[in-house]
What we know:
Elements: E1 6-12, E2 15-21, H1 25-45, H2 51-96
Antiparallel strand pairs: 1-2
Amino acid sequence: MTDHGRVIPVEIHGQRYPIRSTLDPEYVARLAIYVDEKMRAAADSTPTGDSLRLAVLAALNIADELFRCRDSNHVRDGRLAERAEELEKILDRVLMA
Length: 97
């Protein structure tokens, strides 16, 4: 039998949602709080009251954060690979001497 998780009630932008998840309930609650904050920020910048429009704007903001984080990690990983390659060359020279 597959574990489908438990239902975790969360509130986002004044609406309650039952989220079925195998994740830790506190973690799911933190995710919901984060999404709620993004929805509120979208509402502050675009006071239309249209929940779907706010959800799309919040999702775009979250996607932007994710992409920037990924790009930052790729840059960092690239720098680490370059440094590792430089160290390998230095070690090769030292060991050949």
